[in-house]
Structures are given as C-alpha cells and as structure tokens.
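User: Can you fold this complex?
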Amino acid sequence: MELLGKLNEIFCEVFDDDDIKIAPEMTSNDVDGWDSLSHVNLIVTIETKFNIRFSHKELLTFKNVGDLLNSIRSKITTV
Amino acid sequence: MSIIINWQYNIGHICTRQQCELGLGEKVAFRWISARQERIDYTFSDLDRESNRFANVLQSLGFAAGDILFTFLPKSPEQFFSFLGVLKLQVICGTLFSNFGDDALVDRLVDAKAKGIVTKKSFLKKIMRVRDQIPSLKYIIVTDIEEHLSADTLSYPALMREASANFIAPPTSPNTPSVLHYTSGSTGKPKGVLHVHRSILHQSRTASEVLTLNESDIYWCTADQGWVTGTSYGIIGPWSLGVTQIHYGGGYDAKLWFDLLQGEAVSVWYTAPTALRMLMREDVKLYKGYELNALRHIFSVGEPLNPEVITWARTTLGKDIYDTWFQTETGGIMITNRPGLVIKLGSMGTPLDGIDPAIIADDGELLENNIQGNLCLKTGWPSMFVTYLNNESAYNSKLKNGYYYTGDTAVRDDDGYYWFKGRSDDVINTAGHLISPFEVESALLEIEEVAESGVIGAPDELLYEKIVAFVQLHKQFSWSRELEVKIRLHISNRASSIATPQEIIIVDGVPKNKSGKIMRRVLKARYLGQDAGDISTLED
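Assistant: Here's the predicted assembly.
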C-alpha cells in the first residue's frame, strides 16, 4: 500500500473516524480530536507500524501532515 | 443590580433575551475565532435568536422540561446556541468532552437516560457504534450535515432553517434542573452532578467579584464546555453580566494565543495551570514585543498553580496570576486568590464572603489552623449541586453534619489562607481533568492480553499528575511495541485521550488486599520509591 494510504489508515484508527482523508497541507486544526495527547498516540502508532523512530527534535518540526509524510518517507527509504 | 428580574431564574433567558432588554442587543456577545482564524461576531440579539430557534427545534421534536440532552461537540458556536436553547426550554443540558470514547459515552448517556445529543459528523461513528446500548436516545442532531440522514439522525442546519426565531422562556423557578456534568470517583461509574438554574446567582456574582468582569471587558476563558469552568465561566457568568467574550476553536499554540491576547485586546483571561506551564516552557523571546496593555488580570483553575508559574508571569509578562478553586459539585468559585488580596504563592487563597469552609478530621472533629484534614464546605451556597443523578446514596455520602466533603485535603493557615494538600481518594487530576483509575483499569481489562491492572496518578511537572498503568499480562502474551499501541488506542477510543496512560509498566502481579481490592497506595509508593506503609492487609 502506498505511504499516503497507510498513513491515512493510521489516522482513521487513532482518531476513530473512518471519514478522515489526509492531505499534505492538513494540520491538527483539520482533524477533530488531534490534540497534544492524541498526538502522542499518533506518533507511537506511526513509529510502530512503519518500524521507525522520530527524534525529539524531528517531532518539533512537524507542522502538517506533509512534514510527517516526508519524514516517514526519508526513514523508510534509508532503512 | 440583581440579575433576577420578575423572579425569572432561567439561565438561557438571562444570558440572552434579558441582555437585549437591557439595551445590549447589538453588543457583541462573542467573537468566534475558528481554528483557521476566521472571525465571526455574534451579538446578544444573535445569541437570543439562535438559542430561541434551538429551543423551538427541541420543542417540535417533543422535548419537554426535565428531559436531558447532551452536547458532544468541540468548541463551536453551535455549542453555545444549543446550550442556551436547551436551558430556555427547561430541558437539562449535559456537556461532554469531544474526546470521549465509546465507554465514556455509554456510561453517561445511559445513566442520564438521554433523549438527544448534538454532535458533529466526525463523532457519529462513535455514537452509532453504541447506539443500541442507549435505548432512551431518540434524536442525534448533527451540526455539520446539510440534510437529515434519517428520521432520527437530523441536520442541525436544516432544523434551524425551519425553526421560528421567537421563543419566550417559561417562568423558571430557582430549583429547576439546568446543567449536568459527569465527574469521576475512585470507584464505580462516573456520577452525574446536577445543578439548578439558581446557580446563576453565584456564577454571576463571582464573575463580577472575583474575575472582576464588567461591561467594557473583552474576556477569554480557554476552558472546554465539557468542563464545569466552560459552562459556569465560559457561558453563564460572563453573559449574565453582558460581557463580550472571545471563543477560539483551536488548540494550544503559544504564539497564536499571545497574538489573540494582544490583537483582541483581551482584558481578563481565565485559563489552566497546564497551559500556563506550557507557556512557561516556551523560549522567553517569544513574549518580547507583545504589548498586553489591555490585559488587566489572569486567572487559573483546574489544579494547583505552582509558585514558579506565578513568578514567571510576574517577570515575563509583568502580571500576577490568580489561582481559583472550585469543583464540578460547587458550580462556582469558592476559595480563591483575587485582585486586592495578597497572593501567598502556592495557596488556594481565601474563601469568598458567604462561603464557609472547614477542615475536618475523618472522625468529624473540626480541626484548628495548620492541621491537615478534609476540606469541607458548609452547605447552602446558591450554585451547590442538588444531587448525583440516580445516585442518592453517593450524594448523601458526601454530606455530613451540614458539610459537603469535597474529597480534597487541605490546611488553613493563621491568616485564613487555604493550602491544597491532595485528594482523600484515588482520583487522578491530569491537566485539570479528574480521571477515575477504576475507569482506566476497567478499559485495560477489556484488552485480551491484559490479566490485571492497577492505575495511579504520579506527579508530573506539566500535567500536575500523569496516569501510570501497572499491567500484568496473561502468561501466553509478552510485551511489545504493538501491544503498547493497542493499549493506547483502546483506552483513547473507549475512555478518552485524556485517560491514556503516559506510562505503562509491566508487572508480575498487581497488589491487592485480602478482599481483592487493588492497593493503589502500594503501587504509588513503589513507583515513587517510598515506604508503602501498612501492608498487613496485602494478599499473599
């Protein structure tokens, strides 16, 4: 499955909403329930499902879904 | 001036129609600022008209006085219109945090025998999954769909388009039930704290006397309406005084918040210690260049405010922060720091006139100054809750010899200041939200791999307390990152994201007493590296 689709599935699971359609420009303001606490769940889930790790510094740079996608993509391709 | 005119205690009426009759119809009641920072101003006339429409919608659907409707919404204009419309019709309004999961919804809606719920499309999945378990639920009203989905899943915009803008709230006595908030205890299901319309007397008084609100203020209360602060001081108190509010639909963002404080010329700001601690962690350079000349006072509520935060605010912002104390059950501020009262860093402040606290020992003895005991309040203040819905025995257990036992422990010093010491039960206060360890433990036990669980609150620099879960797995399972994700998402989606443990510790066994009760005190002592005290009742 392509990266976007896999990440979309994770969003639906974490935020418990099957109607979520993620896009690179989306931010936490576009998804109901995406707060600081559920963000931790999101990151842990992404790390586990993609078998990657984000550094604390990286986490601070994520401003939208596109940033997340780029970071995941770079980690997957370098593994 | 009294806010009660012609014996009309109806909160919905006083906050809308009455303000219009007092000449404030064209005044901005609130500026809605969406998460994307679009701005819409709503006047008191708008607030009156939209809440009238919603009252008419409910009436046409067969709602009547005493029925219960919940709002399950993030902060939004519809939250305010529906809340006030519900109260105008003398229907009881329960407010739910939008991050509640399935179990949390079922517990509350079933206990209250809810007849209706107002929500958003993105939360429909949760409701539909549990709807069969809530036989009383007749209507689901969805704020962001244009057409009705079925005979009972209805479009809010479509209903409002058809509804009359005229509604006159019936004469409402002070003892008419009004607002319902659920709160967690250390055992059992959450309890429905029921208030009545007379609460507005105290909420209005404290908005004026403590928050110092007046008609020229621009006021910002960051609390969600799922929380008692969000209704008492995000709706009722300020609007009963005709005060203009700003309501922001986005989450925490230090720069954006300060842009709002400056750009909207906020004069009184009511927020939470966790948010203030997050602001304190930001680079101090962020605050350079802001001119908060309009900002007269900052208040906080939710959990104890550490002295460091007050010191930070003094040095960085040049402002004091006044910590206030109250509970869902008290309905309004009871003991508080406030302008004009010398702040003793870290204290709760002093009681308001007419509020009579006492420190009482477990055996009922009234304690002297400087001795720690149960913080109690002499009953009878106007915003006192009237019962725990369907749980009279729990209500009665909180009342002894004319005092309400708050569940907090405290001391009173020789100057009459109160100092919070902790809880007398196991309830966890994380970022101002009371979480029942029992609820989290129950949700954990729903997970196939989990054999036993024990949940405690542990000190946390940011959240005041964090949730720590001790989990014993069934023998055939082992710990993995995948299991951690499973546990996190299960708790988040069944209970709420706030209830998700910050730490999960795998153990060989959970300590219990000989009756099988989880000894959370022992878990906490072990976690903190302290002596567990008397463990003679510990199971072998």
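Chain B touches chain A at residues 35-36, 74, 98-99, 101, 120-123, 125-126, 250-252, 481-482, 484-485, 488-489, 492-493, 497-498, 500 (CB under 8 Å). The two ends of chain B are 66 Å apart (CA to CA).
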